[in-house]
Amino acid sequence: MLTDDVVNRVLDLFAFEDLRPVLAVCKQWRHLALQHPSYWADISLRGTSPGAVELFKVLLARSGTRRIRLTIIIPEPWELFSDIILPAFATHLSHVGTLELKLPASHMTASLNALRRPAPIITRLLLHAFIDSADLSLNATMPPPYPILPVDVFCNNAPSLRHLTAANVTLPPVVVPALSAVTEFMTAFFEQVDEMPLPNVFLYFPQLHTLAIGGSAILYDPAYWDRRNWDNLCCLLLNTFYECNQYILTCLPVDKLPLIHAAYCENDQPDLLIRHLDGPLSVTFADRERDNPTLFLINMTAQRNGMTRTFTELWPDWSDRPPHNLFERVDISQRIVSLTIPDTIWSRVANLHLSLPGVIELRLHLHNNEFSVPLTECSLTVPKLRTLVLRSDIDSAFARPALLVDLVQSAVSQVAYPISLALENVFVDSGRSMLRDFFDPITHQALDLWRYPAPRTFTSKG
Fold first, then answer.
1. Looking at the record's lineage, which domain of life comes first (predicted)?
2. Per-residue pLDDT tens for 170-199?
């Protein structure tokens, strides 16, 4: 017979969906499985079937007073919501660490009213209200009936709350005491075509360091014109409509923020972002979604002070030019001294015919340990290249070192000085003599896992 410790170690390997068959192994396994964190730590309701609702109630009861993450996603109105679901989760607020609610507007209003109980350990509150299309057509000149966060939410007792997401949920007209410790606030209004002005978020969240806004949200309050209010903010994430983006980037004093990310930049918006950056630049192309090669990020960082501007690109047809002339402008291309490209979108970036006369460091990041097209089949021109870096997240063997030589000869044209090669988590088993004849010096490093930054953004789908 296995000890309880051994059984628990085995259960650690199971996801919640796999734990239920384990209950039938024996009494010991059933007892331990019912007490295992996978069975109660992450509780969700994603439908209104009788079985799903009953399991939701059982898991809540079994959680006792232990810390849980609670998720309720019900896209359509359900007549039994207030009678069955609200009492079940409201009584457990005292030990909820993360609460996520995605509900129709009427259910969201009822749920917010039920949150008038202390939540001493909650750290994250995520709210997304679904607005009915019928409500949108009632009066086109009036804002949709967005649920409003109660002033006395959590009975003013949520000292650990640090993150608030409120999509299609508005703040009340007065300050909410329970939000005083929030450092990350994300809000969006996607169902409204007209602008949705936000109140002074710096007043609601005195410790705010990350602000994300989306859809028709706009910052018209006079407080946003005061540069001092932005001093403590570290990160601004924009997924607003074009006009809202344009206003924020041109009219508000956000040019000194350490990080700004704008989703789906077009026209002159990348230029507005890069105006904030002085001196030499590091540029990183990063694949946003591995299964969607038309969607990627461009990160631009000022090497002098580390200020970063990031925007998302969406090119359905990579044969077309970008929706901006960012890389064609001499005043920008000459400032780029470091360029990073992953192998997953190498062929797409190569088709841009980039000519970057200031680049002295080219970094190639291996995800698949291969390139979608030969490295030589590109029009990348970097005549001043001094360092080539080949980087991988895991220990990788690069089997075709001759490609690196071909790439440099193609991109540099005339190699008049030694070019160094840095292999980071990459090893070359054959062809090392060829590399030594061309690169000097060659360095090897084993590094920790490295990822591209992926700023959080809203989507209209929630």
1. Eukaryota
2. 999 999 999 999 999 999 998 766 789 999
CB 99 within 8 A of CB 126: yes
CA atoms of 398 and 391, how far apart (whole Å): 10
**Distance of alpha carbon 272 from alpha carbon 269, whole angstroms:** 5
Token digits of residue 380: 């990348």
In order, the DSSP letters of 46-79 are: ----HHHHHHHHHHHHHHTTS-EEEEEE--S--T
**Cα separation, 24 vs 21, whole angstroms:** 6
- Cα–Cα distance, 210 to 165 (Å, whole number): 11
In DSSP notation, 130-143 reads EPPHHHHHH-TTS-
Q: Is the peptide bond before 441 cis (omega within 30 degrees of 0)?
A: yes
Structure tokens at 102: 């995605």
Chain-centre distance for alpha carbon 288? 9
Contact 440, 417 (CB under 8 A): no
Q: Which of 272, 368, 374, 372 lies closest to 324, judged by CA?
A: 272
SS (H, E, C) 274-304: HCCCCCCEEEEEEECCCCCCCEEEEEEEECC
Nearest-10 crossing angle of helices 4-11, 27-35:
60
Q: What is the pLDDT of residue 386?
A: 92
Q: Are 428 and 398 in contact (CB under 8 A)?
A: yes
Burial class (CB in 10 A: 0-12, 13-18, 19+), 316: exposed
Q: DSSP letter for 40, please.
A: T
Q: From the CB of residue 69, how many other CB atoms can be counted at a distance below 10 Å?
A: 15
Maximum average pLDDT range among 11-20, 121-130, 331-340, 403-412:
121-130
Query: Is residue 137 over pLDDT 60?
Result: no
Contact of 292 with 283, CB cutoff 8 Å: no
Tally of CA atoms within 13 A in the half-sphere of 454 that contains its CB = 11
Determine the Cα–Cα distance for residues 302 and 309; give it in Å rounded to an integer.
Answer: 9
Residue 327 predicted with pLDDT over 70 = yes
pLDDT at residue number 2? 75
* CATH 3.80.10 applies to domain 277-452: yes
Alpha helices in 359-401 (DSSP H): none
Please check whether residue 96 is in contact with residue 72, taking contact to mean a CB–CB distance below 8 angstroms: no
- Mean pLDDT within 359-376: 73
Residues constituting the chain: 462
